Amino acid sequence: MKVRLRDLAEGLGLSVMAVSKALRDAPDIGLATKAKVRAEADRRGYWPNEAARSLRVKQSGWVGMILPDLTSEEGAMLSAGLAEAAQEAGIAVLVGLARTAQEEAEQVRAMMGRGAEAIFILPRISTEHRSTALEIANRVGFPLLFLKRYPADVGLGSGRVSWVVRDMRGAADLVLDHLYDLGHRRVAYLGGHSAARSHALHWQAVQEGVEKRGMSLTGGAKMVGLASEEAAREMEKLLEKKEPPTGVICGTDVLASGVIRACVQRGVLVPNSVSVTGVGDGDFARHGVVPLTTVRFPSLGRLGFEAWKEARGESGEMRPQLAKGELVVRSSTAKANE
């Protein structure tokens, strides 16, 4: 039988209010009493009735996180940062999978119906133009925060709906400045998904930055998708050129891994013959065969959660955030060998 707060109080000879305050670490209860109450609660297997508490304070104590893929490094990094921040705040996180627009809408409705205080979404790339989840949230003024990408109709945010994304234009400048300082003037660009706004911004910024610095793009700027195999195939073509690039700028660390693999298979040394950079600072960047020079961003999941937590205690409105990156220099880049 579940132990009640009243059972603890009777066993300890204390009032129900005193026991409740002791378990909540209230300042007007002595340390010795708190220790005695907690020891008795542990001994008898008592845990608080969070459902009853949520009815009193109108806060459920949990939020939702919706991902398009539960196995990707992208989703793992975002959800890890969110979960860590939530745990520190005493908030639970329920994770849902949405591989289609219909599943995304179903997850949002289910989480809202079960009392989630807010929902954080890593959208599928194909929903960047229109999101059913956004429409549902806007209808009822529900707190919804997009991470890494967001649908075009979010605009500059609508108070209860907002976003946290990476500054990909800034990331391009960091890498270009680094390669330029190393003497690289002939570079190639292998970008990600052409339909993703962040990848398109990175692509555009690299092209503009190359021209501004008097550098040249060997083979033009290529958007190769998300798979490392595609980057490897494009790199093989670049290595066949009469004047191959001395530096390769990649839109993601995954693409950089394909570039390095193609170089290794061809006996081309990284960074002696060609320097390679990425974006993201995931596991490959830190632990690959050639540790990768890349752009690291703060945890978008943590930033998003902190934005919601601040709004939760105040006006409820969240401001959009553009997370700035920092260059992490490792052994995949070196002075140009022209």
Overview of the molecule:
The protein is an alpha/beta fold. The protein folds into three domains: 5-48, no CATH class; 60-166 and 298-322, Response regulator (Rossmann fold); 168-296, Response regulator (Rossmann fold, 3-Layer(aba) Sandwich). It is built from 13 helices and twelve strands. The strands form three sheets. The protein has a six-stranded parallel sheet with strand order 2-1-3-4-5-11, sandwiched between helices. β8, α11 (253-266) and β9 (275-277) form a beta-alpha-beta unit. α6 (101-113) runs parallel beside α7 and α8 runs parallel beside α9. The longest helix has 16 residues, at 73-88. The radius of gyration is 25 Å and the shape is elongated. It starts with a helix and ends in a 10-residue tail after the last strand. The mean pLDDT is 89.
Overall tally of domains: 3
Number of strands: 12
Helix count equals: 13
CATH topology of the largest domain: Rossmann fold
Tell me about the largest β-sheet: 6 strands, parallel
Would you tell me the overall average pLDDT? 89
Round the Cα radius of gyration to an integer and report it.
Answer: 25 Å
User: Helices and strands: which structural class?
Assistant: alpha/beta
What share of the residues does DSSP label as strand, in percent?
Answer: 15-25%
Tell me the span between the first and last alpha carbons. Answer: 77 Å
Helix content: 40-55%
Report the CATH architecture of the largest domain. 3-Layer(aba) Sandwich
Strand order within the widest sheet? 2-1-3-4-5-11
Low-pLDDT residue intervals, each spanning 5 or more residues: none
